[in-house]
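Give me the fold.
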Amino acid sequence: MSIPNISIVIPVYKVEKYLRQCLDSVVNQTLKDIEIIIVDEGDMDECRNIIDEYEAKDERIKTIHEKNGGYGASVNKGINLAQGEYVGIVESDDFIDLQMYEKMYNYAKKLNADVVKIPYNEYYDELLGIVGYSRLCPYATNILHSVPQNTLFSNLDYPHLMAVHASVWSGIYKKEYMDNYNIRFISAKGAGYVDVGFRIDTLMNTNKIAWLNEPLYYYRVTNSENSTTNFNLKSMLQRWKEVHEKFETVYKGTYEAVGKYSIYDEYLTTVGYLCTYDWNDEDWKLLKENLSHVSVDVIKKSKKLTKQMKDRLLEIKKKDNRKKCKAYYKICSLKLFRFITLLTQKEHAKHFEYYLFNLISLKFLPNDKPFLW
């Protein structure tokens, strides 16, 4: 039996509404020599019926139906089962361009890459009356002119990918490379933002990274069940704690190089939520612990943080009590904003706040400037 070009791992959990669109985009790839591994949480729901239907029609599909303990554990089972030369991940509420894996695989083979990354599209089922609206992810413009194309590079030489959404599904990874370095997801409960550590491991162990500048993945923003919509600050802070521990042990001596970029992503996914999330003393303590690993020099020399972001990080590092932090009170004083945020999160009322802010950022702000703070 020949080795498939790519094994595509699809973790499935409560996505009846989107699963057919996802699977159609995978089974109809122009790259035919693929292995499709569907890892289902095992619920006897409509997802099971849909998976059984597709499996009966396509011999390339392999399925696992069992409780896996969360997103990370599910993807790991798929990776362990994978026989392909490369591994890709597609989230079951997303979909992909029909040429995505052919283009990525050919690019990987041309350059002998361990990792190939691409930009992605943010997809909205409906945005202010526009059905099926998509736009290039805001991070892509940061990368286009920052990393080399048609050649290989290392994360230490070009750490720009550390400043963006982990988006581990917008990449393919050589299976042999993953096995050699035991690169897998954290098996935390639920989704748990377990891609944060996976992104670090896939980028830090090789000098054979390649950037293909084509947005071929469609990341669905408007699924009310996904981890972005149901943000959990405590889990995110824990993941960043693990990242800092990893840099102080496994990748010791490298943080100064990549930290100037990764602190931007850490800011957006932690401090950036001061305006929308009820922080408590435990959250504050964990944030302070995480930032203790980040030097003042890294913050000041960051090429991504704005002056306002730098000032807030430095203030938080300096204050021993969250109630003494002016930035905290400044944001928490926005009572109306917070009321709207909590209301839309509770009711999932068509993601009003998210739509509005994306519209504002799309119309009035450069793509590389997130509308936060």
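The CA atoms of residues 35 and 59 lie 9 Å apart.
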